[in-house]
Specification:
The protein has 77 residues and is mostly beta strands. The chain is built from no helices and 5 strands.
């Protein structure tokens, strides 16, 4: 995917009482750096596992291989 070397994923919920809730299934990134806060995240076959304040990560069952995809280069500004 040719992400910039400083690319990162951000998973932030609003607060402990209003967390972000999502599932990462069959996620393959070329840059696995990330930050997270106040999130409930289920993962299956993912190259990224968020961590941070108020973050819980739970493995979940799933099936199938990682999908392949590509993105065009972002135009220079």
């Amino acid at each position: 995917m040719n992400s910039p070397s400083d690319a990162r994923s951000v998973f932030n919920g609003y607060s402990d009482g209003r967390p972000l809730e999502l599932t990462l299934s069959n996620v393959g990134l070329d840059r696995d750096a990330g930050t997270a806060s106040y999130a409930k995240i289920a993962v299956h076959d993912s190259t990224i596992t968020p961590s941070g304040t108020g973050v819980t990560v739970t493995p979940v069952p799933g099936g199938g291989p990682l999908p392949t995809c590509g993105f065009p280069a972002y135009p220079a500004l």
